[in-house]
């Protein structure tokens, strides 16, 4: 066994010392307490005593050299002939001090990627929700929060995960929430920009009596998967919808949902028995795009109630809004519907809308399925909806006088009557 | 068999049991035996300012139940020396506010001796002291300074919340070989409850789940456990299931129990009678953020007294102390 002789730290300010003189030759016998070494530091010489008796075995630092405190200077072994590996002993016992007692080590934060701009924009996520989402492999920004200020809680993540188990796979790794009910011929419901199937709440009771209803929440809406893509193209929404059912269906779409329905009929005519386009468009207009921009900003920055209050006058007619109790009730319902669409989803839907606008203007004459166009007399967002009926061969047209863009919610009797007549 | 006792009577019983079972246990403090009135010396009329130790001098005599001068530095210093040299003293520091005049023997001697003598000296001292507000004892006799002793490594700090806990925790404190600051909250001294007979100890450093729940954790100690229980019952009526954790020991702190209840509920309110800065409440909150971050479903809330002296006015004193309503407000705020 060997005992080290190291450069001592003789005062708080001592950082290094000089080996002045070794008092023994290598191989000599030393007694514990013998002065084996003289060092110098800060103009003072100091005697260094042997910490053990034995053979002065090895010198690491020669006379005259200056080294930091803690540096191994020499070694004493118990006996002259015992095994001694000088370099192994040095590796174990050489502890030169560095400035400030050691080097600083920066540990890389465990977070792999910085939060995306979309993530920073969205509503707060509780740490427990973040952890639960990570464990379940979910993106917490895509989950609707029910806590104060829309905070996503652990319970929200768990509810989302269990709802997700019932999702319908439509494309590679993407599954959609499909609300199904009733029996009979299949009727597919495609909601518009920034809304979910609850936008058809006033149609579903009537349709459930005679049909098998499939309400499809598109990507990023409700519990549907919302993959991080720059845009959700209308063509993709249509092919996703086609993957949720077999055979052919009556397809009903509203606004951007009508665009997806039209796309579905053009791409897969065999899969569409009839088409009902509620306040549709094939080309966007500056006001629609301006409202969409305001919508995106409010979705990212304001509460759901504020967003709903801002959109209310664009969706409904003055006559409808005149009744304050109806207005209050509609505001609450709209806020709930809009809350199911996170801000990043809305931006991706708007990008899809803008890219699709104008691409199908020349193709309306190719629509080969029985089509009903429902337009609204006081529609601020898609005022030209009725013209689609003149372009689509054999299309019938119902205009609901005095109603706003959300005609399916505002005038359900007129809309339901027209749909039932069209489907029979 | 258990019977109804006040916390004060349970403490008295624990001291008697400890003194019967170990001749090295002595009791010392101001007026614990007879006080300065020689006519009352050795009688059972005094028993400390609140009468907690009444009757002990009759059984154990003036040699083991000792009155001291009104000089806390001398009282605590003597007790530390007695502990270091073989006795197992229980020293009564009348009010925790007097920590100021007795701090050096605790801070620099009792807390350090075992460490600095390499374990060759032990200090089996228990300092019993009354803390907290609620008796209109004003700013110099109402403080909850357990955060100070908790912040001193080498001291243990214990604070019971019920008569039964007071007895079991005090017996464990007396028999512990390290110095223990045993805090008797004014809010529970007159509270009665079932207390088991006989000799039993409650281990130091283990928190106690007083009430199981799933939606929010209410963490208290001493008198604030009662506040937490009151709030928990009110929350039950509103459909929120509250778990109540009694810390029992502030040092050592049962961190695992705190994290376990946070993991279970995701929400925590800590209720602390002391002022908020550098408090136990914020210490526990920091633990939740540091080690329990992924459990948090809402911000951690601290319900404490304000950063002011304790008021004398009963109206202001009530406003100063944390209440069940404060707890309900905090739960409402965190969502």
Topology diagram in text:
The complex is a heterodimer of chains A (424) and B (335).
Chain A: E1 2-6, E2 16-22, E3 29-30, E4 35-41, E5 44-49, E6 54-59, E7 66-68, E8 72-77, H1 86-93, H2 117-121, H3 127-136, H4 154-164, E9 168-171, E10 174-181, E11 186-190, H5 204-208, E12 212-217, H6 234-242, E13 249-254, H7 256-267, E14 272-278, H8 286-301, H9 304-315, H10 318-321, H11 324-339, H12 343-356, E15 371-376, H13 387-391, E16 396-400, H14 407-410, H15 412-423
Helix pairs in contact in A: 3-4, 6-7, 8-9, 8-12, 9-11
Chain B: E1 2-6, H1 7-21, E2 25-29, H2 56-64, E3 65-67, H3 72-84, E4 88-95, H4 99-110, H5 113-116, E5 126-131, H6 146-150, E6 156-158, H7 163-175, E7 180-185, H8 186-189, E8 192-196, E9 208-211, E10 216-220, H9 224-237, E11 242-246, E12 249-251, H10 255-265, E13 268-271, H11 280-291, E14 301-303, H12 314-320, H13 324-334
Parallel strand pairs in B: 2-3, 2-4, 4-5, 5-7, 6-7, 10-11, 10-13, 13-14
Antiparallel strand pairs in B: 1-8, 6-12, 9-11
Helix pairs in contact in B: 1-7, 3-4, 9-13, 10-11
Summarize the structure.
The complex is a heterodimer of chains A (424) and B (335). Chain A is built from 15 helices and 16 strands. Chain A has 424 residues and is α/β, with parallel strands linked by helices.
Question: Radius of gyration of chain A from the CA trace?
Answer: 38 Å
- Give the overall average pLDDT of chain A: 90
Structural class of chain A: alpha/beta
Label the CATH architecture of the largest domain in chain A: 3-Layer(aba) Sandwich
Number of domains of chain A: 3
Please report the number of helical segments of chain B. Answer: 13
Note the main sheet of chain B.
7 strands, mixed
Q: What does the overall shape of chain A look like?
A: rod-shaped
Which class best fits the helix and strand makeup of chain B? alpha/beta
* Portion in beta strands of chain B: 15-25%
Rg over C-alpha atoms of chain B, rounded to the nearest angstrom? 20 Å
CATH class of the largest domain in chain A: Alpha Beta
In CATH, the topology of the largest domain in chain A is named Rossmann fold
**Largest sheet composition of chain A:** 8 strands, mixed
Greatest interface by residues involved: A-B, 12 and 9 residues
Cα(first) to Cα(last) distance of chain B is: 44 Å
- Quote the CATH topology of the largest domain in chain B: Rossmann fold
- The CATH class of the largest domain in chain B turns out to be Alpha Beta
